[in-house]
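G., the chain you wanted modeled:
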Amino acid sequence: MIVVSVVDPDAFCALYDRWASPLLAYIYRRVGNPEVAADLLAETFAMVFEKRAKFRDTGHPGSAWYKLATGQISRYYRRQKVELRAVERLGISFG
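Predicted structure as tokens:
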């Protein structure tokens, strides 16, 4: 069992090593853009790192990671919609 420790950075590194690649693939399949996928992966791990003191091992670590990544993907698409509406209201066209 890997526990995210506030005082042991190696524990967090072990989580990153285990989950970064499958999460990146998961995110990429949903956004279709490698740069956006990498950014969302970074945001997911940054959020986990910030809240590592609250981490509790529930026995289902995989589902938690995918839930966190899905939340980042949802926020990304909400931001995209807001930005698109703002551009449309301003009458800006691209191309």
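The chain has one domain: 9-90.

Shout if anything looks off.
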